[in-house]
Design brief:
With 684 residues, the protein is α+β, with helices and mostly antiparallel strands. The protein contains 23 helices and eleven strands. Strand 8 (359-365) and strand 9 form a beta hairpin.
Length: 684
């Protein structure tokens, strides 16, 4: 029993306590680190010093943060052995989803492929047949590459499709990923599809073998980076982009002739590249996509930047959560959309409408126009939805020449935008949801080989977190481009040889006559598909893993009425479970391949402009009549419209009031500053 207690301590304070270990700090501050995962070691040290009046070293703080992350996300090594269970849980909660694993002979993790059923169905139902491929590095101690396949939704935004974790980026890994992707999406005929990528190692060879009839485009930005190694300067860069943006063969030839005038070696370098891989004029019109950059994958890699630093299972769950939230947000955006086409497409159309003011339309009849733009004629065929500049054909969005013709016939521009940009397609792309998984403790245990973590390859130096920037990407203090001679080779102005300047030239010192090289040898575009690794067979667990179910034979029983009512009530309150059905074919390909061109009229007397205007007016009247029939009470409809107009007026008045108040505050502040200046002048 304590009879006397003295609260005043007489012992000397210690600045270093053995019990104050890294594990104790991690356990104590786990919730603070969970709330802010980007907590720096300096910030954590300040927090510890404030609470405990001790300053631990950076090594201890780093180990403490590591222990906290293990509590939050689990053991990084043990998560590999949970991948079998997660694959089974993913197929149970989201039927139709895919999860493949590939192990080596010793049971070490090698590759993993996963995709979600909602993403695949949305991609095939609402997106165009173009796939963007790229890879990004994982920032854990085990390393690895995350391969991604990204689509493009009707609003020209990213649409994730499938993912793969591989050990290294080469021909074998890309073949493995593309084989799984092709089987997963049910692609048999590759002719309607288009692949967009950079020149990754082994990707060109893999695409050629697995998508032999598909169009393969390269990112022009990465092409320019290779071009910039040999040919410097803004003039050549701008001319390269002019060549890539050429939508007709004649325009491309004109820009290539201009490149020849600027630099013959640069012209010859570009001539060696297949033009169908980087020039609009030689690309297919079928996918209705004229992009020249692989930005979709770059955006997605930045979108999952935090997930790439997590352990393997935590990373997959983080990506799944992000895509789930994204689909939900897109569904909310679709509810607020107005009109018939998506917002980004409407902005592009409005920009084309402004540019059409400089065009003059001359009708030839039968829906054919001659458009004059600054003295250059273009031919527009409204019925074929085609223009001789090929911009309408490539993108599916009417160009300014076509808009000039549509304005002449008083036709709405949105009615001639391709169906792949409609809000209806947008809703179909995001109508499926990703169902959440149960807690880890409730997952079904799979009786399969234990998965060991990959072998760690110790690298020299500190692990890199940020991407290595190119010299042209670096910026100075004021935001200007930072000039650098990194990677350049100097050439002597006297003899023309590389590696030295005039002051170090032996020929100049000896007084010899220089023999300058007439042409500078330039290395051609490297062949990056030189991997000789053997193909690895696709190993899955779909063939020998099945969800077990126990079915009990029914028998006639007597149940109380209350119990029956409760069971019926519970059954009626439950959501309908997702049913697995085979994946449909691409809606875009079906619609555009099976549809035929409308038969053009033979004479202008039967199908002229006057008859078309009458048909448009008749269709508008029928549509208005049907809308009136759908409204049960016209008075309520008018009252609702009046209420909406009143709300719009109130909102506009509120905005004007805020503007006037802000202006009054600004004037008052200026008057105060003026009075202060005058007072200072009088005092002086």
């Amino acid at each position: 029993m304590v009879k006397r207690h003295t609260s005043k301590h007489t012992c000397e304070s210690k600045w270093q306590v053995r019990a104050f270990s890294a594990r104790y700090i991690g356990n104590h501050y786990v919730e603070e680190i969970r709330a802010n995962e980007k907590t720096t070691l300096k910030g954590l040290g300040q927090l510890v010093q404030k609470d405990w009046k001790m300053t631990p070293k950076r090594g201890k703080l780093g180990r403490a943060r590591k222990f906290a992350f293990e509590i939050i996300y689990g053991d990084e090594v043990a998560q590999y052995n949970q991948l079998w269970d997660f694959g089974q849980e993913l197929r149970r909660s989201n039927p139709g989803s895919t999860f493949f694993l590939l192990l080596d002979d010793a049971g070490h993790f090698k590759r993993c492929y996963f995709s979600f059923d909602a993403c695949k169905r949305g991609f095939l139902a609402g997106c165009r047949p173009i796939i963007f491929l790229d890879g990004c590095h994982l920032k854990t101690k085990f390393g690895g590459i995350l391969l991604t396949a990204i689509g493009r939704d009707p609003n020209d935004c990213i649409f994730p499709v499938a993912f793969a974790i591989v050990e290294v980026e080469n021909t074998s890994s890309w073949k493995w990923f593309l084989t799984a992707l092709k089987q997963d999406l049910g692609i048999v005929n590759t002719a309607p599809w288009t692949i967009m990528s950079d020149k990754q190692k082994g990707l060109i060879k893999a695409v050629t073998e697995l998508f032999p009839e598909a169009g393969h485009r390269f990112c022009v930005r990465h092409l320019w980076q290779n071009f910039n190694k040999n040919f410097k300067g803004e003039v050549l860069k701008n001319q390269l982009w002019k060549c890539a943006r050429s939508s007709t063969v004649a325009k491309w030839q004109e820009n290539m002739d201009a490149m020849l005038v600027l630099s013959k070696t640069a012209h010859d370098w570009l001539e060696e590249l297949p033009p169908a891989t980087w020039v609009k004029a030689f690309q297919s019109e079928f996918p209705k996509c004229d992009v020249l950059l692989n930005n979709n994958c770059e955006v997605f890699n930045k979108y999952i930047l935090e997930a790439r630093e997590l352990p393997v299972l935590a990373m997959i769950l983080k990506i799944k959560c992000q895509i789930t939230t994204r689909i939900y947000n897109k569904q909310l955006e679709a509810e607020s959309m107005t009109g018939t086409i998506c917002p980004k497409i409407r902005k592009k159309l409005e920009k084309h409408v402004e540019w059409s003011n400089i065009c003059e339309a001359k009708p030839s009849g039968n829906g054919i126009f001659e458009i004059m733009e600054r003295g250059t004629p273009y031919i527009v065929d409204i019925q074929k939805r085609s223009c001789s500049c090929r911009r309408w054909d490539l993108s599916g969005i009417p160009c300014w020449h076509a808009l000039s013709a549509l304005r002449h016939d008083k036709i709405s521009p949105e009615s001639y935008v391709h169906d792949c940009y409609s809000i209806e397609r947008y809703c179909k792309a995001y109508e499926h949801i990703i169902w959440p998984c149960r807690d880890v403790r409730e997952w079904d245990k799979v009786d399969a080989m234990a998965i060991k973590a990959p072998k760690i390859v110790k690298k020299v130096g500190r692990p890199q977190k940020n991407r290595r920037q190119q010299p042209e990407e670096k910026e100075g203090k004021n935001g200007y481009k930072k000039m650098s001679k990194h990677g350049t080779t100097i050439h002597c102005s006297y003899c023309g040889h590389p590696g030295h300047n005039k002051s170090g030239c032996i020929d100049y010192k000896l007084g010899l006559v220089p023999q300058k090289n007439s042409q500078k040898k330039v290395r051609a575009e490297p062949d990056v598909s030189d991997s000789d690794l053997e193909d690895v067979a696709l190993v899955t667990t779909e063939h020998h893993l099945h969800t077990m179910a126990f079915v009990q034979q029914g028998r006639e029983t007597y149940e109380p009425e209350v119990l029956t009512a409760l069971i019926d009530e519970k059954a009626s309150s439950q959501r309908e479970q997702a049913q697995f059905t085979p994946l449909p074919d691409s809606a875009f390909i079906q619609q555009n391949v099976l549809s035929q061109m409308p038969v053009q009229p033979s004479t202008i007397t039967k199908e002229g402009n006057l008859l078309r205007k009458r048909q448009v007016l008749a269709a508008a009247k029928l549509k208005a009549a049907s809308e009136r029939r759908e409204v049960a009470d016209q008075d309520k409809f008018d009252a609702a419209m009046a209420k909406l107009e009143q709300e719009e007026l109130q909102r506009a008045d509120a905005i004007e009031k805020k503007k006037s108040e802000a202006l009054a505050r600004k004037i008052a502040n200026e008057e105060k500053k003026k009075a202060k200046r005058e007072a200072k002048q009088l005092a002086a």
